[in-house]
Specification:
single chain; alpha/beta; Rossmann fold; seven-stranded parallel β-sheet; 8 helices; globular
Length: 263
């Protein structure tokens, strides 16, 4: 049975965390949202989130109050392993029961093949993998890992990733991207369906070449066609999303990257 109302703490309320918090609140949950700038408190209060000033690099005493929730969503770009170890100590003393850790498909190196979660092709030296394992190996709560592809949508327009005079390398390799709307809805469904202790790759259904995708993206900005750095060898990876679609019965809101309207 799905519990309608949950107490959720969102560590990181930026590009993804802010609209995620708003979505969770609109779904009837109470949300505590962290920021590293007190100037953003008013913005967080405007969506009825309870704001907290928290920096993973220097945890303050209010982390205890922030962790008075059932679920913690960790959504920060930090790769500070020692900072996460300190956070884990606080988590073990808290009432948190479930954790969602937002990771990245960058944990996989290019292998010139389609990659599934069960392949175990993570780079053992990647700091994100080391941080993921901190949470997965802790038996005091259940952790679900979401490995998002490159993040696009809203003010993250892929046509502007390389700048007006930038060259785009590896045009023959494939893109693994996901729209913010799908990031938010996948997190929402993990919580609603109570899917824990899992690892999911999350990216759109299609994987056009970098040449195809960025040509369309740049031109949609009204800029000149991009310039590419051709190479005789194009290493790549294609990230499969079959598991997240199967387990959650999820249909992507933006499945075809070449059909997204970024304007």
């Amino acid at each position: 049975m799905i519990k309608a109302h949950k107490k959720i703490s969102v560590l990181g309320s930026g590009w993804l965390g802010f609209p995620l918090s708003e979505k969770l609140i609109n779904c009837g949950n109470s949300v505590k949202a962290s920021t590293t700038s007190q100037n953003r408190f008013e913005e967080l209060l405007s969506i009825k989130a309870e704001p907290f000033l928290i920096d993973i690099n220097c945890l303050s005493q209010n982390i205890n109050e922030f962790l008075e929730s059932e679920i913690l969503i960790i959504n920060i770009p930090s790769k500070n392993l020692e900072g996460f170890k300190k956070l884990l100590i606080e988590l073990k003393l808290s009432q948190i029961e479930k954790v969602i850790f937002i990771s990245s498909t960058s944990v996989y190196e290019n292998s010139n093949k389609t990659i599934f979660e069960s392949d175990n092709l993570e780079s053992s030296t990647n700091p994100l993998v080391l941080i993921e394992n901190l949470f997965k190996n802790c038996n005091q709560f259940k952790t679900t890992i979401l490995r998002f592809g490159g993040l696009i949508g809203y003010n993250r327009h892929p046509g502007k990733f390389f700048g007006s005079s930038g060259f785009i390398p590896n045009p023959g390799s494939f893109v693994n991207l996901i729209h913010c709307d799908d990031c938010i809805e996948i997190i929402n469904q993990i919580i609603r369906q109570e899917v824990w202790a899992e690892t999911f790759n999350c990216c759109a259904d299609t994987h056009p070449t970098r040449r195809e995708f960025y040509t369309k993206a740049v031109e949609s900005c009204g800029l000149a066609s991009p310039r590419f750095i051709d190479s005789d060898t194009n290493t790549f990876k294609i990230i499969s999303n079959l598991k997240v679609k199967s387990v959650l019965n999820y249909k992507f809101l933006h499945p075809d990257l070449l059909k997204i309207d970024f304007i």
